[in-house]
UniProtKB/TrEMBL annotation:
Domain Rho termination factor-like N-terminal: from-to ranges: 54-79
Taxonomic source organism: Parapedobacter luteus
Residue numbers spanned by region Disordered: 1-50
Biased segments, Basic and acidic residues type: 1-29
Name this protein carries in UniProt: Rho termination factor, N-terminal domain
Gene Ontology terms describing biological process: DNA-templated transcription termination
InterPro entries referenced in this protein's UniProt entry, alphabetically: DUF7218, Rho-like_N, Rho_N_sf
Cited Pfam families: DUF7218, Rho_N
Length: 82
């Protein structure tokens, strides 16, 4: 049974599994709190195939700042490593 992390973590088991894989607390919490993360099953579009506008929306959603000054390649790197 997974440890209870309180209201801020929606899926404690997923959070624990991601932390064990070496993800940061922030990234593990963000993924564990995404309601459809497990339902996507790898069907999310590849970042390289998205437009810069779509990447900017993703950056806003996950809290990346300074995205307006980045080119597409750097924006993809920031999203992947956030």
């Amino acid at each position: 049974m997974a440890k209870d992390h309180g209201k801020q973590i929606k899926d404690d088991e997923k959070y624990e599994a991601l932390k064990e894989k070496g993800m940061s607390k922030e990234k593990a919490a963000r993924i564990a709190n995404t309601p459809d993360a497990s339902k996507k099953g790898g069907k999310a579009g590849k970042l390289d195939e998205r437009t810069k506008g779509e990447l900017i929306q993703e950056a806003k959603k996950i809290g990346i700042t300074g995205y307006s000054k980045l080119n597409k390649k750097d924006l993809i790197d920031r999203i992947r490593n956030h």
